[in-house]
Structure formats: structure tokens, C-alpha cells
Amino acid sequence: MPLPHSWPAQRYTISPDYAATELRLAIAARGIEGTHRNDGNGVTLIEFTGLNVWIEPKSFSWLDHTGVRVCHPLIDLHEATDSLIHHLETRQLLM
């Protein structure tokens, strides 16, 4: 079922570069450093050891350990951070 047009989150937009900065800082606060790059065309990349996170105009995405693409909307920084931390910790255990 689609959200109604009056749904509050639909009004908010976040630039990919700003979202990338906030995600990198949230992950760094948990002790994992990453490198932030911007291609100037609306796509930003955060590189962690062994993992790239793409920040596109509307979503964060990365490939999990099986190669499946994981996506989170930019507006959901907290959920993306938790999911990414879980992925990075699980990946570390698999290595």
C-alpha cells in the first residue's frame, strides 16, 4: 500500500554528499573509519575496508557478503547505520 501524498517524509530531501558525511560520522563514532568521495554528479561513495557504500540521490546501498544489494533511503540514517554496522561486523567474523 503506497503512502498517502501528505506523508511528512516525502517533503524532505537530503543531498547525497550531506547524507554520506552523516553516515561516515555515525560509523566513525562506532570505531570504523571510512573514506568519503564525491563524483560531482550526485553519487557519493564511502569506502570502508573491504566494502563500498554508494550514496545515490535517494538511497544508501552496498553489497552484502553474498553479493545481494542492500538499500536504505537517505532519510533513514539510523537504520542504515545499524544495518551497515551489523554487516561490517558480520563480514569481519566471516574473514
Write up what this structure looks like:
By secondary structure, the protein is an alpha+beta fold. It has helices at 16-28, 77-94, and strands at 35-38, 44-48, 51-55, 59-63, 69-73. A 5-stranded antiparallel sheet has the order 1-2-3-4-5, with helices on one face. A hairpin with a 3-residue loop joins strand 3 (51-55) and strand 4 (59-63). Helix 1 (16-28) packs across helix 2 (77-94). It is globular and about 40 Å long.
Quick description:
With 95 residues, the protein is α+β, with helices and mostly antiparallel strands. The chain has helices spanning 16-28, 77-94; strands at 35-38, 44-48, 51-55, 59-63, 69-73.
Which keywords apply here?
alpha+beta, 2 helices, 95 residues
Class computed from helices, strands and strand pairing: alpha+beta
Described by its quaternary structure, the protein is single chain
Report the uncertain regions.
Answer: none
How many strands, which pairing sense, and closed or not: the largest β-sheet? Answer: 5 strands, antiparallel
User: What is the count of DSSP helices, taking H or I runs of 4+ residues?
Assistant: 2
Helix residue percentage = 25-40%
Arrangement of strands in the largest sheet = 1-2-3-4-5
The general outline is globular
Strand content: 25-35%
* Radius of gyration, in angstroms, nearest whole number: 14 Å
How many E-type strands?
5
Distance between the termini: 40 Å
